[in-house]
Amino acid sequence: MLLGFLDSLFKKKFEGKTAEEWYGLAASETDPEKKIEYFNKVLKLKPDFAGAWNLIGLEYIGLKRYEEAIASFDKALEIRPVYPEARYNKEDAETELRKIKASKAKAGEKRGEDRQEKKEV
């Protein structure tokens, strides 16, 4: 009886696959959106798998979805506070997000200057 319980615990499935099978699909996938989908299925079965959260964050960086990346790295760090890769990846995502915000702010200032110049003409 106990063996059956342990087997079901370690071989728990979501949509017919184990966490390991979903992880394998994610690892071999080339489409970032699909990778995220598969890693999310891993997390349905193993929500405390910090490595999957980190890998999802990396896919979000590739898609330039930095806020979602940061949230994924935060989750990884919440689970495993001493996780250097997740910390470095989060810092990279935050740097890219700051660059984008600074660029948008600069573009907004430039548009404002252009409008002011047109008014003065």
Verbal overview:
This protein has one domain (12-120): Serine Threonine Protein Phosphatase 5, Tetratricopeptide repeat (Alpha Horseshoe). Helix content is 80%, strand content 3%. The protein is built from six helices and two strands, in the order αββααααα. It is elongated, with a radius of gyration of 21 Å. 26% of the residues are buried. The mean pLDDT is 88.
Percent helix, as a range, is over 70%
* Share of β-strand residues: under 5%
Question: First CA to last CA: what distance?
Answer: 87 Å
Report mean pLDDT, rounded to a whole number. Answer: 88
Report the strand count. Answer: 2
| Lateral arrangement of strands in the main beta sheet | 1-2
What structural category do the secondary elements indicate?
Answer: mainly alpha
**Low-pLDDT sequence parts:** none
From the 3D coordinates, which CATH architecture would you assign?
Alpha Horseshoe
User: What is the chain-wise order of helices and strands?
Assistant: HEEHHHHH
Radius of gyration: 21 Å
